[in-house]
Design brief:
This protein is mainly beta. The chain is built from two helices and eight strands, in the order αβαβββββββ. The chain is globular and about 35 Å long. The protein binds zinc ion.
């Protein structure tokens, strides 16, 4: 990995606003189960890479891609195939 790529690594809080736009919920406290290793991590704690195309979210335990989000031309494309389960906290609880 180059230094430039390493600098692009953020935590899940960096995409809290983007995910809130899509899901209309607080997402940094949502917990995702990695489809690769089974690790459960709050979205606020996953590894986020904002290098194009779009945003890639990786499991901090095994590095598997959990989520890909591309925004453009008035649309969002969301690939959640790397997440086995996404647990959201119901608003108001
Ligand atoms: Zn994993």
């Amino acid at each position: 990995m180059t230094v430039e790529q390493a600098d692009m690594k953020l935590d899940g809080n960096a995409i809290g606003g983007l995910l809130a736009e899509i899901f209309n919920m607080e997402m940094t406290t949502a917990e995702g189960t990695c489809g690769g290793c089974g690790a459960v991590n709050a979205v606020g704690r996953v590894d986020v890479y904002v290098n194009a195309p779009g945003t890639v979210v990786r499991c901090p335990a095994c590095g598997q891609v959990l989520m890909r989000i591309v925004r453009g031309r008035g649309r969002y494309w969301i690939d959640l195939s790397g997440i086995r389960c996404l647990e959201l906290i119901e608003p108001g609880t």
